[in-house]
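Before the break, one more example. Copy the sequence into your notebook; we will annotate it together after we see the structure.
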Amino acid sequence: MTSKTISVWTACGLAVVVVLAWGVGFGDEAGSVALAQQDTWTTDAARKQGIRLVETRNTSGSPAYPVQAGDLLFFTNSGTTFGAKNTINSIIVINAKTKKPIAVSEIENEWVQGFVSHGMGVSPDARYVYLPGQAPRSSKNPSNILVLDGRTLKIRQIIASGGERPHHVRNFQDWTGKQRVLVEDFNWTNNAPNGKGFFVLDPADNNKVLGGMTPGELRGNPYNGFVAPDGRYVYYSMPAPDHSIRVATEGWLAKIDMQTWKVVQHIPMHRYPIWTVFSRDGRYAWVTQNGSHKILKLERGMAPGQLDKIVGEGPTGPGPYGAALTMDEREVWVADKGEEVPAAQRKTTVTVVDAATMQLKRTIETGCRTNDHLMLSPDGDEMWAACNSSHEVVVVDTKTYQLKTRIPMPNQGDSHGGSFVSYTNGPNGLVAEVVSDTNGLHGSARAAAEKGVRWAAGAR
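Here is what the structure looks like once it is written out:
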């Protein structure tokens, strides 16, 4: 098990340490209290949404996995739902070249035993791994985001929103060129919305909250958010606010200006919009539609005063969820999860749609049960699919459409999402960067794609 040593921050000249209820938390054992002289973490944005730093810990120790320059690793999570035999919420590290798991996080039971996680993320520099978790009813600890050290996989921070549970975590670069992390709550439970909406963290400044919006401000319950290539606008799928009617009621897509934290356009959608992907130039976007079993194509308003408009739609399998563009952007791949679809009608397929014409190109049988997230490998050769119910990740060749391999979760847990991390030699040692996740390509992989050159691990 990982160390439970907690960092105690001291300041020169202060004789009395003040424990602040907002910014610190209390553990079960002696010494597991994070103390502070002043709350320098809680921003106005965090206070507005009720987000608090529960604990800060020492993460020193041996690395949890070996790595060297030229390596490409894939981080995913292994949860405790969808029939999983796993009882411990965890992070799995996979060598993306050999397709073999090389590490499983070991976290104290009180924060992972029976916790539910339907997403994960890695900070742009891979310093942090984010593991959201919904607390089981038997737990005295809150739903939270466990911020793990990217190398030791020990808990660095515990962040609680006080909502239903944090759901997904994704990277993006904002309009000023700074790297950010987007987090959203699940935002409903049993027809009673109690999520905190979404918020943005600054991984370069101790994961402080920079901004966000509540369901009240959005006048609805945000489900999945994706940032456009300009880094200024985030698009949130907005299903019906009441869980019991979301399959039968139309939804909308909220286009949000993150400079002003205002919704600038409500785009009508079919029933239950879920996932948005963008062309690299930002001109087009594609949005999966759960209830209508379709994917819509948007032409984005790129000039002042222009609005986004729907310009096409194409068929998918039942209950589509995640989507991803191929490297040449000629195809959009859609995970036929079967979201809100009766079990007898669910499929284990990925639908490939022509991104220009929106015509069906082919249906790929993967055997991946309840596939929700798709991630393109940074070289564009592979599509990785997270399989909730078959407790694995499957890898498909994007050129031949053939299944390349299946990667079972080591502890038979449900996988949701993933991030590819590349490692290179830098002037001060090994340098890590996220090159692809559920929000598309990042870093050197995105730069290579924009130049039309092939990306390779270890090259920047």
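Residues 226 and 262 are 16 Å apart (CA to CA). The helical segments are 44-49, 109-112, 215-218, 443-451. Try to locate both features in your own notes.
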